[in-house]
Amino acid sequence: MLPLVGLLVGIGIGLALDIPIPVAYSKYLGVAVLAALDSAIGGLRANLEMKFNEKLFFTGFFSNTLMAAFIVFMGDRLGIEVLYLAAVVAFGVRLFQNLALVRRHYFQRRHWE
Amino acid sequence: MKHLRDFFSVLNTKTKRTQVAIAAVCMLIGVLIVTQLRVHQTASQALQAATESDLSQIVNNLDSEINALRAEAADLRLQLFKIERASNDSGAILKETSKNLDKLKVIAGLTKVDGPGIRVLITDEDRLLNSYDLIDIISELRNGRAEAISINGIRVVIKTGITQNGGNIFIDRKSVSPPYEVLAIGDPEALHKALVIAGGIRDMLYPLPGVSLYINKEADISINAMVSKNPE
Q1: Is residue A32 part of a domain?
Q2: Which residue of chain B comes nearest to A13, CA vs CA?
Q3: Cα-based angle B124, B127, B133 (whole degrees, multiple of 5)
């Protein structure tokens, strides 16, 4: 419940602030969003598995996000513009895996009840 | 009501901090997502919907527009060059014309003239000189390339008439009497030479009693413009 409220508040803040970002950097932000989403879903999964650790979660969130942006940056610098695909694939795959596990947890719990 | 109770129960459970942490992260995600969507919306709202052929059409249009603008720029540059050249030409013509005009004004006696020249004082105690003698003097000065001449303050130009009625000499219908002071502007050496040349005007006037020429070379002489009744 609270995460949903947080998400809505975040969207509200984003709409209210209207942070201007150059188009050239939108790729970085896109990959960063993907990484953040992955971290959030991973945290949810860890929570359901009862092994949630705040420190792990926060460091994971920030390091994943920054690393994703850094990979895109490196790709642009090294002339491998498609390097960002590595981040996209890695986070995408993990996103779906975590989502599947979260789903399973919910259904199993309900099954037990 | 149930939601509210859930909310408070969540806050009171041990997993409260976990929930808050995830909520904070979700909030950050929300900000990021909205920002990203904003960027894409403003940057490529029109282009995103376009198909590949549409995009290539747009690119083609832009290319042809660029070419047209380049051609126009070249045309305008050429035009600018032509106009600049024309203005330079007309400027030179104007300069030349105004120089000519100045010269003609000096010749016509319309302007005051300053410069080096000679001052000739002609005494005529017995009033033996006639109008032709004055005309001869002026002619000699003109041979010496005098730019401007005056006799007793009266500017002598091409159309100036020197006439005689009895013993009186008139320059442009104004009576003049001796001694005559003749001013001439030009190269002093040349003017002096024109008057003292052997067999010239000085030798001609020399035998006449009471007539003598005093010639002075001066560095700065000023001759006034011709006084005209109908200045035009």
Answers
A1: yes
A2: B31
A3: 75
| Of B18, B29, B31, Cβ closest to residue A54 | B18
Residue A2 lies in a domain: no
Q: pLDDT tens across A51-99, in order?
A: 878 788 888 888 888 888 888 888 888 888 788 888 889 888 999 998 8
- For chain B, the domain total comes to 2
**Full residue range of the structural domain in which residue B211 is found:** 107-223
Find residues 39-78 of chain A whose CB sits inside 8 Å of chain B.
39-40, 43-44, 47, 52, 54, 57-58, 61
Q: How many CB atoms lie within 10 A of CB B82?
A: 10
| Structural domain contains residue B184 | yes
Per the listing, tokens 């006449």 go with: B208
Taking a contact as any Cβ pair under 8 Å apart, which residues of chain A between 7 and 26 contact chain B? 7-15, 17-19, 21, 23, 26
φ/ψ (deg, to 5) at B201 = -65, -35
A63 is a domain residue? yes
Using the Cβ of B39 and the Cβ atoms of chain A, whether some distance falls under 8 Å is answered with: yes
For residue A51, count CB atoms less than 10 angstroms from its CB and return exposed for 0-12, middle for 13-18, buried for 19 or more: exposed
Say yes or no: B130 and B209 in one domain. yes
What is the per-residue pLDDT across A86-110, written as a single tens digit (0 to 9) for each?
888 988 899 999 888 888 888 876 5
- The pLDDT confidence band at residue A5, using thresholds 50, 70 and 90, is confident
Residue found by looking up tokens 């010639």 in the block: B215
Cβ neighbours of A43 in B, within 8 Å: 18, 21-22, 25
Domain that holds residue A29: 22-112
Structural domain includes residue B23? yes
